[in-house]
Every structure is written in structure tokens, then in C-alpha cells.
Amino acid sequence: xxxxxxxxxxxxxxxxxxxxxxxxxxxxxxxxxxxxxxxxxxxxxxxxxxxxxxxxxxxxxxxxxxxxxxxxxxxxxxxxxxxxxxxxxxxxxxxxxxxxxxxxxxxxxxxxxxxxxxxxxxxxxxxxxxxxxxxxxxxxxxxxxxxxxxxxxxxxxxxxxxxxxxxxxxxxxxxxxxxxxxxxxxxxxxxxxxxxxxxxxxxxxxxxxxxxxxxxxxxxxxxxxxxxxxxxxxxxxxxxxxxxxxxxxxxxxxxxxxxxxxxxxxxxxxxxxxxxxxxxxxxxxxxxxxxxxxxxxxxxxxxxxxxxxxxxxxxxxxxxxxxxxxxxxxxxxxxxxxxxxxxxxxxxxxxxxxxxxxxxxxxxxxxxxxxxxxxxxxxxxxxxxxxxxxxxxxxxxxxxxxxxxxxxxxxxxxxxxxxxxxxxxxxxxxxxxxxxxxxxxxxxxxxxxxxxxxxxxxxxxxxxxxxxxxxxxxxxxxxxxxxxxxxxxxxxxxxxxxxxxxxxxxxxxxxxxxxxxxxxxxxxxxxxxxxxxxxxxxxxxxxxxxxxxxxxxxxxxxxxxxxxxxxxxxxxxxxxxxxxxxxxxxxxxxxxxxxxxxxxxxxxxxxxxxxxxxxxxxxxxxxxxxxxxxxxxxxxxxxxxxxxxxxxxxxxxxxxxxxxxxxxxxxxxxxxxxxxxxxxxxxxxxxxxx
Length: 690
Known about the structure:
By secondary structure, this protein is α/β, with parallel strands linked by helices.
């Protein structure tokens, strides 16, 4: 069993950084101001980042910087500057989810390591392989995987694998949630999640119409996989990540300490880990493939009181620095030389040499035991004595205070050497000029249907393109097939990926118009097809769009949080599309909120969540149990029918989910006639300044 497993801790601010490092983290992850998925954390300016890297590197701790939010075209110059700042600070890696960020890193600072953020929704072997081909050094897996699924990814992955070990669980698969953006105007994909899923969303079937929901059936307990840390090591995981940049220094220290003990097979204070933060306890449901109602929980007053009581004990974990940097001493000189020469060296090639201020005297007894004790007193520093090599026959006697002074000076100077900045080389780079999409035109209409039976036959001809799920391929009439795109699932867990690949392989690419892919993994088993990018790719800027076009996409749907002004910046040389009608899928989740009120055997495959305002959110299920995916839809549809000419894209897409064929026909008629909507609707974020 390898002991090289990295313990990766959150550092939302400088105090948290110190707590994580002093308690023994091997690496920390932190945000540069802007461009990270926790914009409400303290985060670090470029100058603060440089100081943080020096502090960490002096102690043998790596620094990973998060640049993992959706980026718009106008922000690309700032993103390039952020990459330069990270490189000049000498950080070890960037955590990124946008292909634009990846391209900028490879162009500006190619020696920076690139880690694929969990927001890329990578959860399968093919996803890990694709990230390796795209130039990533590490994949951070989605939190929803079972231990067996993690093993399978590790066995197949050509790059390092990182998993979350402890902390909050998003209800949605990370990177695929739009709930905060469309319910509150604060995008989680842009680092500003308001956490609406922690509010009441009630799946209880007996609620009276319009009555507000009170139960929190979208609130998951925090995950705690620390008891399984050595199983994850055996599986081949390279790094275990503690979630929580918005938490406290005490939280970071408690989790890091527990992980260090677990890595060594030693017991740890489980009660402290729970008390310092939990939501009615923890869950290991995903890891054990036990996705049931026991996964759900809320933060109670008792939990908050336990945290307050546990804080002093947790603070003791980082009151003094954990010594862990080996220092090798060499002792030369002595009585005959009229002085002592002490060399202190680390294992990275740094070395300092000091000479005693006083002349040693002839010793009355063996001085070496006393010298060893004095040099080993490294407490309060990151150093621990690895060895003392004595290259003198008679070191003589010096007072203990003299040896203590030599040790302090040596370690201070060695720490200064280890703190020296080591920036990455930065290459000259000029952002390309990206063409803007023409404005004022009328985009062609295309439609996505949940099933062939939902598509009104009279609209199959006037629609420019039809989109159906891959599972509907056999049902698509022959006359429609050349204009039909088959949509691959946004998420496929475990064996579902191989089944999807087999289903694609069984079809004739010449028979259909193409495929809609929703995950980078799907690039790998669709090579003979015309491919279009779907909702799951989160395309928001011209650089990532151009990168996907270079990877073979013939067109792409822009992420629906993108304002129309930002859409106009995206013209990658292939058609772009945007939603003109949809009950937006606010959340994709492997955990099922309906399991709070009934079992899979009792479920019809659809259900409802009632929020605190009395609104009903439809929930659909792709399959029972852990293999399935649940989708939570916005009750109010997006609609742009009378404003289609304001959409700077080539295709306007009407996406139908649970509508009846008759209602689908009504909406399509309104879109073709460019008429206002006949019920409550939203323009989404199209007219915002995002």
C-alpha cells in the first residue's frame, strides 16, 4: 500500500491556510480573487498568493489554485492575467473546468500542472482518458461515485485521480446545477451559489395545493469517507480532498488531522470531526452505492452548539506547527579547529552553514548526546531532525544555549531558502481576435423532445433539426432521421457509459444527422459521427467554443446562464444555438429527493417538490436506484418567441420535457408565429449583465 496519498485541504483565507498547513496537510487549494467557484470565500490577491505559496513551499506543502468558473468572452484578458499571476507566484497546479482556461495555461505557463475540476462532471474511465488527451495532469472525480466506480476509473486513468473525502455534498452533480442562477440570480457555476437547495423543498405527497413546503428534501448531509481512506488508497487514488473553503480553520485542522491518522491506520477523534461541522451527521451513501433517504439532513441548532463547544479543542490541533520537513545536520570542527561548523540541509538540495561564535572547550564527558538533544529541539518549526552526521573526533564542549542558538539560526536560514520564490516561466501570448456573431437575424428553429411520441408530426418538416434521446433512435421515423440528432445522456454512471458507447456503435452514422454530446468522455466513442455540443458542456466563451470546434464539434448549444450580449461574442466558425423555450433542468442528481417519502418500488418515475413559496418543481427519474439520474425542472419556462431576432445565434432551440404532444404543438405554433407566451414565463438571465 502506497503512503504517497496526498491530503488536500481547503484554504479560504490566510488563517485557514495556516491551520491546514500546521495540522499537516500535504497540499492546499485556494482561490485567486475572481474566476473561482467560491467567490464569497476570502480568497487571495496575486501578492497574497505569492506569499501563501512561499509559506507553503517552505513547509513542503503544494498549492493548487482554483480557476474553475464559467468565463465569458470579455473576461478572457483578465483570465490570462490570472494565469500569469498564478505562474509568477510559483503555485503547483491550477484547477480548471473551462477549456479556455486549459488553453491559456498551456499557452502561457506550460509547466503549471492542470487539474480537471469536479465541475467538468468526469465520472467514468473514458472521461479520465479524454482529460489526459486534453493535457490535464489530474482528474477530480464527481462526488457521486461508488468505491467500485472509483476503482474502475483509477485502473483506466493515465493521469492522477483525486476524490473528495469529507465535506459538503451538492445535491446536483457539480457543474450541472442552475438552480441558484435561475431562482436567485446568483450562479453557482460562476462561484456565487446562494445554496437554495438547503431551503425547504418538500416531496411529501399529501401537501394541499399551494401550501408551502417545509421539509428540506434537497439538503444532503455532508460526506465523510475518512473511515474508507485506506480503501481509496488501495483503489489507486492519488489525492483526497477536503471540501470547505467557506468553513473555519478549526474545521480544516480537524479534518486534516483525521485524514493523517487514517492514512497511517491509526484511530482519530471521530466525535471531534462530527462536532466541528455536520448536518445531522454524515453520509457515505454514494461510496457504498446506498442512495436512500438516510443521505439527507439539515444543520440543526444542536449541530451549531456542538461546533461552538468543539472549537477550542480543534484549535489545539494547529496551535503549534507540525514538524515534518527532514533536516540533516553535519557537524565538523571542534577543539583543535577552534570552532564548530554546523551544516543543515533538507532533501531538496537547500543547505546552510553556520559557525559557532564561541570556541569549544575540552569536554569532560561525551558531548554528543547533549548535542543531539539540542539539535533535535525543532518544535515550533516545520523541521524534524533526520540525522546528525559527526565528522570530527573531538567536537568539544559548548553550552546548551550556544547549540540552541546555532540550531535556531540554521533552521531560520534554511526556512528562508525554502521560502524563495520559484515562478514558472511565462511565455508571451496574445489573445486571438474572436469574431462576433451577427445580430438581428432570425435564428432557425430546432426542437428537442423527450420522446418521438411527443413530437407533433406536422412540425417535423418545418423544424430545421430534431433532437431525441439516444434511447429513442429505433422509434425515429425514417423520413425524419437525416435531420435528427440523437442526444447522449448528460451523465452516465458506472456500466451506463459502456452501454451508451455500445448503443452508439450499433447505429449507422450515415442514417442520422448526428449526435449531441454532453460530456468530454463522449468525444472518445463518437469519432465516426457528426457531433454537436449539448447543455452539459457549459460553453460560454469564444475560446472554449473554438476549442470544441477544433475537437470536431459541428455546432454547440450555449450554456443558458449566458446573457445575450455574451452570446454574441461566441462565433466559433460552426453554428451556435441557444434555448428559446424550456422548463430548464435546474439540477441533475444521483441522490433522489423522492426517496425521502417512498421507495423506488413505489415510484412512478416522476414526482413533485414543493418549495417554501408553494411552487411545484417536477422531478423525473431516468432509472431506479443508484444507476439513475434525477432531474429537477423549473416550474416557470424560459420563453423568447416574440424576441427571437434578439438572440445572436444560428439556432433557437425549443426543449420539451414533460409537455403533452398537444401542448408541444401549441408552443411550437407560438414560436413559428413569434407570438407572446400564453402563461407565466421567464427570460432567464438573457438580459442581465453577466
